[in-house]
Amino acid sequence: MTQPSDTSRPSGGHRSPVAAHPVTSAVIAILILASIFFAVWVPLFASATPKIGDFPFFYAYLLIYMPVLGIVMWIVIMLQARLRPRAGAERRAGADGGEVAR
Amino acid sequence: MSNVNAVTFTIVVVLFLVVTLTGFAAARWRRAEDMLHLNEWGLGGRGFGTFVAWFLLGGDLYTAYTFIAVPAAMFGAGAVTGYFAVAYTIIVFPIALIFLPRLWSIARVHHYVTPADFIRGRYGSRGLALAIAFTGILALMPYIALQLVGIQAVLTVMGVGTGSGNTFVKDLPLFIAFFVLAIFTYVSGLRAPALIAFIKDTLVYLMIIVAVLYLPTKVGGWGHIFSTAEAHMKTINPATHKPTGVFIPTTGNSQLAFSTLALGSALALMVYPHAVTAVLSTKRRDIIKRNMALLPLYSIMLGFIALLGYVALTDKVTAANVKKANNAQLAVPYLFQHLFPSWFTGIAFSAIVIGALVPAAIMAIAAANLFTRNIFKEFFKPDASPRLETKVAQWVSLIVKVGALVFAISLPKTFSINLQLLGGIWILQTFPAIVFGLFTRWFHRYALLAGWLAGMLYGTIAAYNVSTPTASHWGGSVNTLWGHTYYIGLTAVILNVAVTVVLTLVLRATRVPAGTDETSQPQYTADPADTPPPAPAAAVLGSDVSGGDLP
User: Could you tell me which chain A residue has the CA closest to the CA of B249?
Assistant: First the structure.
């Protein structure tokens, strides 16, 4: 929505984070969409085999999905942090360290 | 009360007392100078960090729905109506990561307490804000009622109060539990469930780890459990002449029901007022994001709890008990009672009861915040002081619980999971206004209102018309449309969006006033804690570039 006015501006300054990092933004979008898609596209995993331990594939798949999702979400958050303007990122890093100590 | 196990009963009572004392003591936790402010009572001072937020959100989102309703649905009908919850709690996090940080930022900059506050500020529309507030309160009723049903299930299996034919005496322990909950919520506000959530989660994790490692070995191992469940789901139900349930959804219709239930529930969860309340109580924007990566840890647990429904099916004594009581809700409590030593049954039962009390408290607070901010203050007393606001919210939190009791008593309890899905149908209708509104002002306020009305009407009527052999109305949450089976919530919200888009085009073409927007684009990514205190930079920036955001 704000893109048109952004492109008319010189690079740097107030460019939108998405326009400034197209690859990172695309990776974020793909990771989020994929993590939704692979959980709701049932034909992909609605089968009893291959069994994982004693668990039919259908049941094991969604259980294993959870920790994988946690990791993917973590990657997305890290990538989103890279989209932030640099000054903000530095201040944030300082504040994060402080929060752990608290 | 002759068949009450003394050890189990004592442990539940003792842990309940501990929780009650914690609830009252919470009023002193992180004490603020002026507690009679809605920011304090209703949002815990907006100061919770990652650690507390993890417990609070976990305590908030994983409810009696998780511990009683999901395994009951697995026990009764298998994968589609039960195991979809696992897919649902997977996709809720990526979806939430898209919009919750924006909601947090805009609420922090403008001091919004409820989702309807945001709607009021974004669209300048009291009517739309009222619709959102009303829907929030309405949708929370069956969800709180579900918590009551969960507590009731545990009490029934414990044998407390069932000896009497008198309804009042029968439900007396439930009334006592809810009365205590109501009082400490009144006194301590959001601090009470936040502090109790620590106890809840410790007990729940203990219960689950032991249950998952110990129970399958007692009934013959996971292989036997799955083959028993598969065989059971294939047997023909004499009432419907159809298979009892679905073990693995292989037909197109069962897959569609599974996906739409998961997707609809996930879209609904984070626009529920109690989820928003917990989100807004956090200190920093990053805390929300971090929790979207940490909370899936909780969902692994949900997956295993769901499978306890199959374990209950495999244990012959439990299956017989449930059949005799004709109430699938009792599956997990009966399972614990039969296979755990009585002291551990006490711990597990406490975990379920407390696991219902924590979210019920947060839901009551969220509903109270909505009523106070968006109905009482907006329409009856615009000059209400923060002190009066807090007083009103405290009283409303009590009234809301009575409303939930009515829901719990009047709706059929055969599948309590429907209580949550029914609330989901309604709350989903607020999704377009809230979530689309976080990204764009293109949608017209009156179009959103009309879309909301269409979705509410269709969803309610469709849900009312769902019948089963045992219940003529409110029998389920999926219906068949053009030969396919969908979650009503999702079809209703699609209708909602369609109406909204068409009317927006019409209203924009005819230049109907769109209302003033008090927010600006940079405020949606702001964290006031990032900026030096003297200059609220987000607000300053906002006035500079707000032109780009107006229609």
Answer: A46
**Residue A65 within any structural domain of the chain:** yes
- Put simply, the answer to whether B97 touches A1 (Cβ < 8 Å) is no
Q: What is the pLDDT of residues B400-437, one digit of tens each?
A: 888 777 777 666 555 556 667 778 889 999 999 999 98
Disruptive mutation site among A18, A59, A74 for chain B (greatest number of B CBs within 10 Å): A59
pLDDT band at B501 (very low <50, low <70, confident <90, very high): very high
Do the chains contact at B91 and A91, CB–CB below 8 Å? no
Q: Which of residues 29-68 of A touch B (CB under 8 A)?
A: 31-33, 35-36, 39-43, 46-48, 53-56, 58-59, 62-63, 65-67
Q: In this structure, is residue A72 part of a structural domain?
A: yes
Report residue B278 as tokens. Answer: 């917990």
Residue type, B197: A
What mean pLDDT, rounded, does chain A reach?
72
For B392-424, b/e burial (b = at least 16 CB within 10 A) is bbbebbeebbebbbebbeebebbbbbbbbbbbb
Q: Residue B322 in contact with residue B74, Cβ under 8 Å?
A: no
Model confidence over A29-76: pLDDT tens digits?
899 999 999 988 888 888 887 888 888 898 999 889 988 998 999 999
Nearest CA in chain B to A65: B90
A34 assigned to some structural domain: yes
Among A5, A70, A72, select the one facing B548 at the smallest CB separation.
A5
- Closest-approach residue (CA) in chain B for A96: B286
* Residue A57 belongs to domain spanning: 19-85
Q: What is the count of structural domains for chain A?
A: 1
* Chain A residues inside the 8 Å CB shell of B225: 54
Question: Quick check: A9 contacting B, CB < 8 Å?
Answer: no
B74-107, pLDDT tens digit by residue? 888 887 878 888 899 899 999 988 888 899 999 8
Interface check for A80 against chain B (CB to CB < 8 A): the answer is: yes
Nearest CA in chain B to A53: B223
Type of residue numbered B204: V
Q: What is the pLDDT of residues B180-218, one digit of tens each?
A: 888 888 888 888 888 888 888 888 888 888 988 888 888
Residues 6+ apart with CB under 8 A from B124: B445, B515, B516, B517, B518
Is A5 near chain B, with CB under 8 Å?
Answer: yes
Give how far Cα B15 sits from Cα of B189, B273, B349, Å. Answer: 21, 29, 10
How far away is chain A from the Cα of B10, in angstroms, using its nearest Cα? Answer: 35
A-chain residues within 8 Å CB-CB of B529?
Answer: 95
Residue in chain A lying closest to B546 (CA): A2
Tens-digit pLDDT profile for residues B128-147: 999 999 999 888 888 888 88
Tell me the C-alpha distance between B358 and B351, whole Å. Answer: 11
Q: Read off the pLDDT of each residue in B345-357 and give the average, rounded to a whole number.
A: 88
* Local confidence band at B360 (pLDDT 50, 70, 90 cut-offs): confident
CB–CB contact B93 A69 (8 Å): yes
CB contact at 8 A, B416 and B72: yes
Residue B334 CA to residue A15 CA, distance in Å, equals: 60
* Residue A101 placed within a domain: no
- pLDDT tens, residue by residue, B4-22: 778 888 888 888 888 888 8
- Whole-model pTM: value is 0.83
Three-class secondary structure of residue B463 per DSSP: helix
The residue assigned the tokens 């009021």 is: B120
> Is the pLDDT higher at B74 or at B43?
B74
Q: What are chain B's domains?
A: 6-15+54-522 (1.20.1730.10)
